[in-house]
Structures are given as C-alpha cells and as structure tokens.
Amino acid sequence: MLTPDSDRTKTEALTEIKERIRARVVVGAGAVNEQTLKLPELPDFSGLRHLSEELKTLCAQIGGVPPEPPTMRGRIGAFLVHLVQRALFWYTPQIRISIDGLARLFQQYLDQLEDSIRFDRQEKELFRKQVADLAVKIANLEARINTREEKMD
Could you give the number of structural domains in the chain? Predict the structure, then answer.
C-alpha cells in the first residue's frame, strides 16, 4: 500500500514534476530560438516626422500675408487681411507658440517611442538568450542526474 510518505510516491511525484518542467522549458526554448531569427522590423516613423516638419513650416506662415494677385480685387483683399491682422495682433504670437509647442511635443513623443521600441527589442533579445542558456543548463543538469541515477542502479 502506497502512503504519501513512501519513497516510491515521492519519486513518482518528482518524475512527474521534472517532466512538466522539461516540457515547458524545451517547448519554450524551441519557440524562442525560432522567434530570435524573426524579430519584427522597427516601425517606420518617417511619415510622421515629415508631417511634424510640415506642421513647423505651416506654423511659420501663421500671421503672414497670402500672395497678393496684381488685380484690384487682390489689392482690396490684401488691405482687408492687413486690417484683420492688425486687429488681431495679440493672437498671432500665441497661436504660433502653441502650435510650435505641439510640434516639438510630437517630435519628442516620436523620439521617446523609438527609444522605447529599441529598448524593448534589446530586452527581448537578452531574455531569449537567457532562456536559451537556461535550456542548455537544464539539459546538462538532466544529463548529470541521469548518469548519477544510472550509477546508483
């Protein structure tokens, strides 16, 4: 009759635990090695950076007078634009400062995002290497245990 304290019960439990651990580590290590070869490319933020530069260019144009066509209608329109510009002189610098601040904030956000992605990739690669090293160490330990068990028999 097997009791919870018997050596056979303990040996069976330890064997089952070893098999579970081995299955998880070996499957995990194999998946990690395959994924190491197929890391996704870094996202391309060049389009967003181009939009940020365009936003800075548009910000510089705020408060400027549009091109004046050489017609009577163009001269009247330019006069009206100058009137509105003089009437709202206090808004133009505030709008420029606000939009320029948003453009710089967006640029910093993109820089931080790229740095974060690079750091995440480095951490994943380091983790994969550590898991592969652990899988090798576990395999070596299992070989030692098996040789000791064979010597004991």
Answer: 1
